[in-house]
Amino acid sequence: MNTEKATLKDGRTIEFVHDQPRSGTMKEVYFTPDRKSVVCFYKDPCAGSDANRLQRLQMILGAYNPTLPQSHGGAAQNDIEADYYRKLFCWPTGIVVQPRFGLVTPAYPSNFFFPTGPVWLKGEEKNGMWFIGPKNRKWFEKNQPSELGSLIQHFSLCLQIARAVARLHNAGLAHSDLSHNNVLIDPSKGMSIIIDIDSLVVEGLFPPDVLGTKGYIAPEVLSTIQLDLKDPKRKNPNARTDQHALAAFFYWYLLGRHPLDGRRIPPGNTAEEQDLLAFGSQAIFCEHPSDSSNRPEEKQYVPCSALGPLLYDLFIRAFVKSLHSPSDRPTALEWVRGFVKTWDLLIPCSNSSCLHKWFVFHNSTDIRCPFCGTRFKGTIPFLKLRAESRPGQWAMDGQLAVYNQLPIFKWHIYSRVFPSPETDRTRQAYCVFHEGKWFLVNEKLTSLTSPGGNRVPPGQAVELKDGAQIRFSQEHNGRIAEVQMIRS
Amino acid sequence: MSMGRRLPVYLLLDTSGSMSGEPIEAVRQGIKALLSDLMSEPTARETVYLSVITFSSSAQQIVPLTELMSFQEPSLDANGSTAFGDALKVLEQCMDREVVKATSTTQKGDWKPLVFIMTDGQPTDSWESVADHIKQKKLGNVIACAAGPGADENMLKKVTELVVKLNSLQPEALKAFFKWVSDSIKTTSQSVAQVAADTPIGLPKPDPNNMIIVL
Asked: Pick from A241, A336, A348, B112: most CB atoms within 10 A?
């Protein structure tokens, strides 16, 4: 193995294998001998002499770094948080000064490369375009459907992206180039990882050096692209444009079409001119409630309302109300909440060959999977979760559609618990369908109380019947679940 | 980023007698490598359509504009003279027939085509007026490659501003050229610059050992 040594800014040295590098647009990438890290050299020979870039990288590696605990000069509260965000970001770990200017970053985890497939696929990175591009998608549906994952895994990876971006924004950072190229996804495991962290934007301090990627650039950026770089009217990437990119990615990925790519063709002599308008100043949501001019080209399509009322509201806000008024866009944290709450409405599709395998429950007499059209037949216990907002007042603050083996976690039990990196993820109870009846089986709850007022100790179960009220916990913030049996 | 739009790519390859032997074999390998590189790039798989036009004593389109996944490598033979003018005429006819115009009312128009021209010698037919026509009408983003010592880069400047010079016809140099073509296609299929109507496309830096950009 032909290895070479690189010297880092902090004086450490690192070995890398000097063979044919993987080549990106900005960098050349070499593995370390253990293949756990990569050394990336900037192609631009002047990259190292850019004082602004150097200062930015030092901040990114240190004070802004959510994968490094505060005790080590990073931004993570503790080791748990640092470990958690290390799974969501491929965050640089060192600045290389010799033999050339570059970075050390962890290698992408192996599940973000295709393990099998034809020569053109095997070993390639799981760039999002493999899954959102219609031709690519069709190929996977036919040849390697296991790579596509189910809706529950789609939700899982979207939630991770939203959490990661929320973490950046919370620290005053913006990614500035969120796209299928900079977010690797593994739908088969429901995982995502944000890469290319080195061009993060700090508003007012470090300006963006990229405009973004086609399909994710916010309308205000595209419509001012012709202006001079120094023109104050020119809009550049920031946290609000990240919010647009985030919404566009979720919509594109979950529904298989771009939110602004409908049948409307704006005036223009070339495709380039037309798309500059279609994604810029004249952008119109393809599902706009009152303007139908830009509907999707397909006759039949799954509308975003199929993803439940919370995500529907977020999409409408992102692409109708705030498409051209950036300050009202849904925040990454609102998407986190939207996915967490909608997760509780996912139920399995009864069609065993349905590719999505899950869909978002909607309370109606005709419950169908919107993706394959299969009608659901059977009973769904639907739990309305209530919390005591003021003494004696129980307000609904959650919903849970029950399926066989549904796990119940602390964030269902207590109204003040929201799933976060540090939340206890131990299953507290679960629901089963047994001999024609539905039960909630207690595992960890110390004060689960039946509708009749009796304690249900761990190991025992309480039946879910229409109208029943079950108190998950007598503790402060413990919720009550009100059961509604829905037959379809 | 409309998914309905295609990126047409035309390769105009000189297959005159001077290319026979090692050079034409290197071109074959180059096309093979180009295809395999683009096949692994998910955005290119969605948008790129490829055509090959060869020219020797006359020019012909040997592969019509074809979706990447259905593209079959053509068989190439080198002999005859260098009908460069004919090649440009065939190019114009093919683009006229195959590229969907933005003014189409039934489907979304194609992106501006990318045209790569590679020649190793002097034209043997008349070519100036058609070259002028292609340059004036900006029918595509044309990149011309003067391959080896016998090619005239100043002549190619009459077709396009974007000219590269390949220092030899050695397999290594041709390999570097096709790698650069592949990188250029990938960059164009993703670049933002292309979104802005009339800005020149941003091309990757060529391999300095084998190629230079002629300014």
From this structure: A241
Range of the domain at B43: 7-214
Alpha helices in chain B (DSSP H): 22-39, 42-47, 84-98, 128-137, 153-156, 171-190
pLDDT digits (tens, 9 = 90+) for B20-65: 999 999 999 999 999 999 999 999 999 999 999 999 999 999 999 9
Q: Is residue B84 part of a domain?
A: yes
Q: How many domains does chain B have?
A: 1
Q: Which CATH number fits domain A378-487: 1.25.40.10, 2.40.110.10, 3.60.15.10, 2.60.200.20?
A: 2.60.200.20
Using alpha carbons, list the distances in angstroms from residue A160 to A313, A337, A387, B25: 20, 12, 27, 49
Q: Establish if B133 belongs to a structural domain.
A: yes
Q: Which of B103, B183, B195 to mutate to test the interface with A (most CBs of A within 10 A)?
A: B195
Which residues in B lie closer than 8 A to residue A273 (C-beta atoms)?
102, 197
Kindly list the domain boundaries of chain A, sorted by start residue.
1-107, 110-344, 378-487
Residue of A124, A258, A273 with shortest CB distance to B197? A273
Within-domain flag for B2? no
In chain B, which residues have their Cβ closer than 8 Å to the Cβ of A212? 192
> Contact B3/A134, CB-based, under 8 Å?
yes
Report which of A405, A391, A468, A474 is spatially closest to residue A434, judged by C-alpha positions: A405
How many Cα atoms sit within 13 Å of A412 on the Cβ side? 28
Window from A57-66, A222-231, A428-437, B154-163 with minimum mean pLDDT? A222-231
Higher per-residue confidence, B210 vs A235? A235
Q: Which residues of B touch A119 (CB under 8 A)?
A: 36
Cα distances from A297 to residues A286, A294, B3, B43, B56, in angstroms, run 9, 9, 11, 20, 44
Domain presence at residue B175 = yes
CATH of domain A1-107: 3.30.200
